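User: Good morning. I'm curious how adenosine-5'-diphosphate would be positioned relative to this chain. Could you predict the structure with it bound?
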Amino acid sequence: MPRGFFITFEGLDGSGKSTQIKRLAAWFEKLHEAANTAAESWAEPPGRAPVVTRQPGGTEIGDRIRALALDSRGTRLAPMTEMALMFADRAQAIAEVIQPALDQGRIVICDRFTDSTEAYQGGGRELGSEIVLELHRLLCRDLQPDLTLMLLPPVEASLARAQRRNERSVAQNGRDEGRFEREEIEFHRRVLNKYREIAARERRRVVLIEGDGSIEEVHEGVVAAVAERLGIVAKK
Ligand code: ADP
Ligand code: TYD
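Assistant: Good morning! Here's the predicted structure, ligand included:
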């Protein structure tokens, strides 16, 4: 059985990752309808849509770690603790969700992975890349995505969207995940710079989608990158 295909999405809060993941999952689901020989091996049969997950979260234990790490009242979390929690979450997600799905030949789409820890804890919290990459080797057995879509619209646009979304979430269900969104703009610039550094280092894996494109335009960029890597000839 061939290994599946592992896709991750990265970017600042509010950069459009969840929106694009929903669109991409829907695109994969429609693929099986297309009588396209090149696409057939990757067209999941009905009921076998791509496995979609997110970090932190995506498992029962991960959801508890997520609440601990993101609740904006938990401000006393030390940077090392925060990084350890992100890796604890990830190790669980790999064991429980990601690796089993890849072993079955499935497509896995994950909202954030170790690039987020390198960008936020390594860059934003200034712990550096080295410790993050070393922990990834030890705790995640160096599992690498086959493709990473990095969405980098202007920082201000991302953060304004994320803030609006968090306010809606607090108003609707009392859930406050604003911990990182409350960081000063300099923190987010360090995160962004680290993302750019990763993209420059990992040219084969990372596809950068920059600028202020509409949801539709970004989706087209995402689909073009995925189709190219999987050898799918998109049917108009
Ligand atoms: P993320 O998962 O990266 O935090 P979301 O997908 O939740 O981001 O998007 C945050 C908000 O911005 C949502 O309300 C979404 O509808 C909106 N949004 C996403 N992509 C775009 C875009 N390209 N242009 C304008 N608004 C967008
Ligand atoms: P996420 O739910 O993806 O937020 P958003 O949808 O707003 O982009 O991620 C929650 C927050 O956790 C986000 O601010 C980034 C942060 N984070 C880290 O700091 N380190 C990590 O390793 C991960 C996975 C996320």
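The chain has one domain: 5-230. The first strand starts at residue 5 and ends at 11.
Let me know if you'd like a different ligand tried.
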